């Protein structure tokens, strides 16, 4: 069955903006670029620090300064405007938040914090829930789009989100902030960092609280019933330490612990259910260099413990997932312009389900995986760059699996046009819950299927990037295409539900951007994504993948003290499951457009006053279906820092 939809006002606006922003960029007045500007360095596409201009992969870099300017408090908010991504969150702060990249499933996205995979072994799909990730200690986020299993292994069919926290450097520096505003919001941060002699350190405490957030649209509530709002309280503690024994050997450690209290409307919308998710992760790493740094070895071990206790009127359920991983990576400067990366890893996932809905009362299962990989990063004649990698995984439940990727880029002399392309494969094993889970919810029985096979993908993209006016203007376009087979689908078998490898999907589309540094006080950037994602067997659209998404961001610094940012985000309609009639009824959810404003004033060298208005025009919309997003919100606060 083919489903056709008429274009909406929002989709027409997005198409217009995709033409308008590049047009504005092309008529920019001449000016010289800053000759002292440093190139943007990325790590996620290759595993080594590489100038972005030499990378063929589509990657978006978000810095701590970007997050601070726009005053985004959660990672889900930060990612909302990134091209190629669709962020879904069930309500306001604390609601489950997942990311779809280039039309693939949320479970096809690998999320890392300081190299630690936070995909949840206890999640029904094994997905990473980013709802608990606060931004107060984040230094950088790299969003890498396209299949990346050749380097990152499983779960990287759609791409990789790599988050790096702040590392201490220089004299000791202390920071603190406080913010209050709409929806009972009261947020605070405190931290200190620095480096002395051979040691570096960073410690942070972050608290976010929103006590009265509308969660359910009025259309689902009986007029005589007062809406039950959601409550969220998140406390996060993080630390990062490093010690250099000498110029050839050092050790590093990171740790992060989050404890949350999330109360949200129950199924009838008349009372609250309660979740108290906890996330703990840690990683230790030793770095050894040899042959004057031409060989650098990294030996690491990391551990995650993710717990999701949930209490409803029916009783308490607890879902626990743990992961223990050992890894080794060696970066070898083999020849001038030739870098070899070799690596191996071994991990074990554990899942415990102690749920009132589990007929046996408890599920306790595990699965392991071993992987080896090799990568060659090549540069020829200072204008041609090629990254190629290959990986072999052996999974305890499914046996061996091979993946690979190749990504060439060419810089054209004179115009400095970058031509880029990539081709790669990916795979995603079934989650432990899909294999072995067992539920009986109000008479609806769900059973796992231990005979499931891994989902597999092949994807490619091709595009260009063009600087103009000495780099003051940049624009580019990338076309992408993915084929996913053996997709796991939740399927009815009459008296019960289970999972089967029954689907095939295709996703394709265009990512376009234009950035214009109008002058020293004003810069503009526009992004547009067109996505087609559909079931290759039925032609039905895949859920929660809007065809059109666009954003425009403006940064204005009228004086050295003032800084103002404005962001427009517009999303077209999308196909979704009806919240009330799940999983049997599907609907089209209308698109939306919102505007956010943020400003800050540097009162002194140590004190900054800031404020923001989210959803300026108080747009009422749902994303996903049945979950109301917050209306207009006004917030303000103060930030202090020692020199």
User: For this entry, what is the oligomeric state of its chains?
Assistant: single chain
Number of domains: 1
C-alpha-based Rg, rounded: 24 Å
The fraction of residues in strands falls at over 45%
| Average pLDDT for all residues | 91
CATH architecture, by name, is Beta Barrel
Distance between the termini: 63 Å
- CATH class categorisation: Mainly Beta
Number of helices: 5
Q: Quickly give the structural class.
A: mainly beta
Structure commentary:
By secondary structure, this protein is mostly beta strands. The protein is built from 5 helices and 36 strands. The protein has a 25-stranded mixed β-sheet that branches. Mean pLDDT is 91; it is low at 1-36.
Secondary-structure map:
Elements (H helix, E strand, L loop, with lengths): L8 H18 L14 E2 L7 E2 L6 E6 H7 L4 H4 L6 E5 L7 E5 L7 E5 L2 E2 L20 E8 L3 H4 L6 E7 L7 E9 L3 E12 L2 E15 L16 E17 L2 E17 L6 E4 L2 E13 L4 E18 L2 E21 L2 E17 L8 E18 L3 E12 L3 E13 L6 E11 L3 H5 L1 E4 L2 E4 L7 E14 L4 E20 L3 E24 L2 E14 L12 E9 L5 E10 L2 E4 L8 E4 L2 E11 L4 E8 L18 E9 L2
């Amino acid at each position: 069955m083919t489903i056709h939809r008429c274009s909406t006002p929002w989709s027409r606006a997005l198409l217009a903006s995709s033409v308008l922003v590049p047009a504005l960029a092309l008529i920019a007045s001449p000016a010289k670029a800053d000759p002292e500007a440093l190139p943007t360095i990325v790590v996620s596409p290759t595993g080594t620090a590489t100038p972005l201009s030499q990378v063929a992969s589509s990657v978006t870099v978000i810095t701590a300064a970007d997050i601070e300017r726009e005053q985004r408090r959660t990672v889900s908010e930060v990612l909302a405007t990134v091209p190629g991504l669709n962020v879904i969150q069930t309500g306001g702060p604390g609601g489950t938040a997942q990311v779809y990249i280039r039309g693939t499933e949320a479970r096809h996205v690998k999320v890392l914090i300081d190299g630690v995979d936070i995909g949840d072994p206890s999640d029904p799909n094994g997905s990473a829930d980013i709802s608990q990730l606060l931004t107060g200690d984040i230094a950088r986020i790299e969003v890498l789009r396209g299949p990346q299993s050749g380097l990152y292994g499983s779960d990287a069919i759609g791409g990789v989100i790599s988050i790096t926290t702040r590392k201490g450097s220089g004299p000791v520096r202390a920071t603190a902030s406080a913010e209050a505003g709409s929806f009972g919001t009261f947020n605070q941060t405190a931290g200190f960092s620095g480096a002395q002699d051979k040691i570096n350190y960073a410690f942070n405490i972050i608290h976010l609280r929103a006590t009265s957030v509308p969660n359910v649209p009025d259309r689902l509530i009986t007029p005589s019933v007062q809406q039950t709002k959601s409550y969220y309280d998140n406390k996060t503690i993080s630390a990062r330490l490093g010690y250099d024994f000498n110029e050839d050997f050092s050790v590093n450690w990171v740790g992060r612990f989050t404890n949350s209290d999330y109360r949200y409307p129950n199924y009838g919308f008349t009372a609250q259910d309660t979740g108290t998710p906890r996330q703990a992760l840690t990683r230790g790493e030793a770095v050894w260099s040899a042959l004057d740094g031409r060989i650098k070895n990294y030996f690491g071990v990391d551990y995650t413990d993710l717990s999701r206790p949930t209490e409803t009127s029916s009783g308490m359920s607890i879902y626990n997932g743990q992961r223990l991983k050992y890894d080794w990576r060696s970066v070898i400067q083999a020849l001038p312009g030739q870098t070899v990366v070799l690596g191996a890893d071994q991990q074990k996932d554990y899942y415990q389900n102690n749920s009132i809905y589990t007929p046996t009362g408890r599920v306790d299962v595990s699965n392991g995986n071993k992987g080896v990989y090799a990568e060659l990063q090549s540069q020829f004649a200072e204008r041609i760059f090629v990254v190629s990698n290959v990986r072999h995984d052996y999974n305890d439940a499914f046996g061996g699996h091979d993946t690979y990727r190749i990504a060439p880029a060419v810089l054209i002399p004179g115009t400095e046009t970058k031509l880029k392309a990539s081709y790669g494969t990916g795979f995603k094993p079934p989650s432990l819950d899909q294999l072995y889970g067992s539920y009986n919810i109000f008479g609806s029985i769900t059973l796992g299927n231990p005979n499931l096979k891994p989902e597999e993908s092949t994807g490619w993209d091709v595009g260009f990037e063009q600087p103009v006016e000495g780099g003051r203007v940049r624009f580019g376009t990338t076309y992408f295409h993915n084929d996913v087979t053996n997709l796991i689908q939740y399927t009815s078998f009459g008296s019960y539900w289970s999972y089967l490898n029954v689907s095939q999907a295709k996703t394709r589309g265009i990512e376009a951007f234009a950035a214009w540094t109008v002058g020293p006080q004003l810069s503009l950037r526009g992004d547009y994504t067109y996505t087609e994602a559909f079931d290759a067997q039925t032609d039905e659209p895949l859920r929660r993948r809007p065809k059109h998404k666009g954003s425009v961001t403006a940064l204005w610094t009228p004086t050295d003290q003032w800084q103002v940012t404005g962001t427009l985000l517009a999303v077209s309609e999308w196909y979704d499951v009806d919240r009330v009639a799940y999983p049997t009824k599907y609907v089209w959810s209308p698109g939306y457009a919102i505007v956010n404003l943020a400003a800050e004033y540097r009162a002194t060298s140590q004190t900054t006053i800031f404020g923001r208005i989210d959803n300026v025009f108080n747009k009422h919309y749902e994303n996903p279906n049945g979950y109301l997003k917050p209306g207009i919100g006004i917030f303000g606060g103060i930030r202090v820092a020692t020199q």
